[in-house]
Amino acid sequence: MHRLRRSLPSLTALIAFEAAARTGGFTRAADELGVTQAAVSRRIAALEKDIGLPLFERRNRAVHLTDAGRDLFASVRTALDGLADTVERMRAPGARLTITVSVAFAHFLLLPRLSTFREAHPDIDLRVISEDAWTAPDDRQIDLGVRYGTPPFRGMRVVGSLDETLVPVCTPALADRLGPLTLTDLAQRRDIIKIDSASPEPGWLNWTAWFRQSGWTGGFAEARLRFSSYSDAAYAAMNGEGVALGWTRLLQRPLADGRLTTLPLSPVVPEDRHFILVPEGKPPSPERDAFAAWLADA
């Protein structure tokens, strides 16, 4: 028997160990693998006996990796991810990229321009995941992601960024009706309907933060129209419902085609920005590099 086969533990045990280490528990690992919790426990016990070291500390129904467990987990996860990537490429030959972005980024910046990338790179198949939840560090299928915030981003490496400015926006017709505005007008006039949304990503500014960074220290009339999605807030502004905070790079298309206009107030340059990220440990990819370069020119 080859030396490698003699020295490696059971693959079944390694898979059970990886699942338990990643999910943080034997029961969750069992649910994921479709086996009983007792089966996972037996496999990990056999692995610990084979290696001769404890891999988990078992305390009060919770399990925590030991130093040996963390060392093994890093190696096992890298090996299993590499194997899965290879099998996936063999099953679906050809260049393929999986991209993850927020819903607003997909709606307003990525999708309106995506045809230019596809025309330049017709042989690259794209899969776009639009979600505000950030799962890229734990999803081995992700090749590239865009995230708003400040580095470092766990498990990801920065390869580019997109600057932003933030200024109130509305329809040209509404801007004409409101007339020339000062910061005081925007803060205190009750006839100006402010539109707000939940934050799709960490660091996303709301009206409170925007007024503060604009130098306003007094009170202001709260937003009277709120949405759970920034995309909905932006579309409400395009429909003339009121004034929303506009991320000028994100909304460059509706600002350029006249659906929106900026109000004559000083823009805020936020400390955070959109970063283009790739998973640490992923092998080099000319297709991914091409997409990152195209996106950086957005």
Automatic annotation (TrEMBL):
InterPro entries: LysR-type_TF_proteobact-type (IPR058163), LysR_HTH_N (IPR000847), LysR_subst-bd (IPR005119), WH-like_DNA-bd_sf (IPR036388), WH_DNA-bd_sf (IPR036390). The keyword Cytoplasm does not apply. Keywords: DNA-binding, Transcription, Transcription regulation. Belongs to the LysR transcriptional regulatory family. One of its GO terms (molecular function) is DNA-binding transcription factor activity. It holds the Pfam family HTH_1. Residues 9-66 form the HTH lysR-type domain. This is DNA-binding transcriptional regulator, LysR family. The keyword Transcription regulation applies. Gene3D superfamilies: Periplasmic binding protein-like II, Winged helix-like DNA-binding domain superfamily/Winged helix DNA-binding domain.
